[in-house]
């Protein structure tokens, strides 16, 4: 192959970057669903982590940490199933806890099997009896688990749980794992091979979308609007969502997997307790998603927290859509102020797709689907090497790299090393200044698009042939 200046170049330097193959996602088969329910602080999330074999559910030694229905994939003896963690169920709850209880009830109604967790160290309470009364009318099989049985001293309390009328109570320690294998074996016995309900069909699997933003910008309200149900607990108190909440949403005849995440209030290093673990889960949700919808409060100035969320999304390399929520509260004066704020605050993401919405009224939420498709198409875009180098030849001829150390570096050739996000490698005879790399990125966007997707441009300095021969 010839360089941009007409000289011969060793193809072994670049062929490895150009032959990336994109494997198609395999369809994920539907899995039966197990709901974990019980009153607050009986150790449901601890037991969930034990069942799935990893620490994903946020756990803290205070009641009411889990609030939404949160689904996790589990595997035992070669069989896969879905575990749904729920918030504490109380029959006479009010306020936000009433919404939490509603989520638990929905989980019980839609699951293929239910696991009721009781604190063996306390015994059956009136709340446990109320839950058991509801579950005795359930059509799905119900298993009774006595948690926090760390040794034999509590076996008498376990036996007393027969009074709940749900069959034999199984002793387990979610914290230490005692008896967890027997519980898992029993779970597989009662779960059907396939779930009773499935949502839509998509041979490639739904695209994963992370809803992120600072606390109280309306992420859960938007998810509820998109699903048409109260999928996430919504409250005026900031920080209501703790665990990421997955939901399948149908927009424009296409199924998407939306993940509602906890609002990022502090840097992960400075957060503590449940907030620290919620921040870690949010970061993991962004990294496992394909595109992030960053919600901003259109009625308020862009804050440092908003910029921190944007930085996290950009550094993760995910496609990005900016959704300005609460647009119904924006007047003419606020619109004029926003123009100045966007020019100043969003200088890092001028390429992001933007949509003005209102989760409360439903205004323009359907416009999210076209913006998501545009961002994902850009994220998957590959530019042929021939076309890329032909364009780059003209660009460098018009605006050559700046002189550095008395010498002007030459760009020998370029190739797109990867997609998701689009990553370009420039092979040069010398280092290219950061400003010139940004210039190339800007011109790449003008020529090839990439709306809604980050673009990475890296430089590989080519050693002189004499130095390579000495080695």
Overall shape: elongated
Radius of gyration: 27 Å
Biggest beta sheet summary: 6 strands, mixed
Strand arrangement within the widest β-sheet reads 2-3-1-4-5-6
Strand tally, please?
15
Helix/strand-derived class? alpha/beta
**Helices and strands, in N-to-C order?**
HEHEEHEHEHEHEHEEHEHEHEHHEEHEH
Provide the residue-averaged pLDDT. 80
Beta-strand content estimate: 15-25%
Overall helicity: 25-40%
Poorly predicted parts: 6-28, 60-67, 197-204, 232-243, 268-273
Distinct helical segment count: 14
Q: How many angstroms does the end-to-end distance come to?
A: 24 Å
Description:
The protein has about 475 residues and is an alpha/beta fold. The strands form 3 sheets. The chain has a 6-stranded mixed sheet with strand order 2-3-1-4-5-6, sandwiched between helices. The protein has a 6-stranded mixed sheet with strand order 8-9-7-10-11-12, sandwiched between helices. Strands 13-14-15 form a 3-stranded mixed sheet. The chain starts with 14 loop residues before the first helix and ends with a helix. Residues about 5-30, about 60-65, about 195-205, about 230-245 and about 270-275 have low confidence and may be disordered. The chain has helices spanning about 15-20, 45-50, 95-110, 125-135, 155-160, 180-190, 220-225, 275-290, 305-315, 330-345, 370-380, 385-400, 435-450, 465-470; strands at about 35, 70-75, 80-85, 115-120, 140-145, 170, 205-210, 245-250, 255-260, 290-295, 320-325, 355, 410-420, 425-430, 455-460. It is built from 14 helices and 15 strands.
């Amino acid at each position: 192959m010839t360089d941009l200046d007409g000289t011969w170049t060793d193809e072994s330097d670049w062929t490895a970057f150009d032959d990336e193959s994109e494997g198609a996602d395999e369809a994920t088969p539907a899995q039966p669903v197990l709901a974990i329910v019980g009153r607050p602080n009986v150790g449901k999330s601890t037991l969930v982590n034990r069942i799935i074999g990893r620490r994903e559910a946020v756990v803290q030694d205070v009641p009411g940490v889990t609030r939404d229905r949160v689904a996790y994939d589990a595997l035992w003896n070669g069989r896969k199933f879905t575990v749904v963690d729920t918030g504490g169920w109380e029959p006479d709850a009010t306020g936000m806890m009433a919404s939490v209880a509603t989520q638990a009830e929905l989980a019980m109604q839609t699951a293929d099997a239910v696991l009721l967790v009781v604190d063996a160290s306390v015994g059956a309470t009136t709340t446990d009896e109320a839950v058991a009364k509801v579950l005795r009318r359930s059509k799905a099989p119900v298993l009774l688990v006595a948690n926090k049985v760390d040794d034999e001293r509590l076996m008498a309390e376990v036996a007393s749980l027969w009074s709940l009328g749900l069959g034999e109570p199984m002793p387990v320690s979610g914290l230490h794992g005692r008896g967890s294998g027997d519980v898992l074996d029993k779970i597989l016995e009662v779960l059907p091979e396939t779930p009773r309900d499935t949502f839509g069909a998509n041979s490639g699997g739904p695209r994963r979308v992370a809803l992120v933003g600072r606390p109280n910008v309306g992420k859960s309200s938007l998810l509820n609007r998109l699903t048409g149900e109260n999928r996430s607990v919504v409250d005026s108190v900031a920080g209501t969502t703790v665990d990421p909440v997955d939901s399948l949403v149908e927009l424009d005849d296409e199924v998407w997997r939306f993940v509602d995440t906890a609002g990022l209030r502090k840097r992960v290093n400075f957060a503590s307790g449940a907030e620290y673990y919620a921040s870690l889960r949010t970061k993991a949700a962004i990294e496992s998603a394909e595109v992030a919808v960053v919600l901003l409060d259109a009625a308020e100035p862009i804050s440092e927290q908003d910029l921190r969320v944007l930085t996290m999304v950009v550094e993760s390399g995910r496609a990005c859509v900016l959704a300005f929520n609460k647009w119904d509260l924006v007047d003419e004066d606020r619109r004029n102020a926003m123009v100045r704020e966007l020019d100043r605050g969003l200088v890092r993401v001028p390429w992001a797709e933007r949509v003005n919405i209102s989760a409360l009224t439903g205004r323009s939420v359907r416009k999210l689907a076209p913006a998501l498709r545009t961002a994902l198409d850009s994220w998957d875009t590959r530019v042929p090497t021939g076309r890329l180098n032909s364009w780059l030849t003209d660009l460098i001829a018009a605006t050559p790299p700046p002189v550095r150390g008395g010498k002007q570096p030459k760009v020998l050739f370029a190739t797109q090393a990867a997609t998701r996000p689009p990553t370009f490698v420039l092979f040069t005879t010398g280092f290219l200044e950061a400003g010139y790399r940004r210039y190339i990125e800007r011109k790449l966007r003008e020529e090839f698009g990439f709306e809604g997707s980050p673009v990475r441009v890296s430089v590989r300095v080519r050693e002189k042939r004499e130095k390579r021969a000495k080695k």
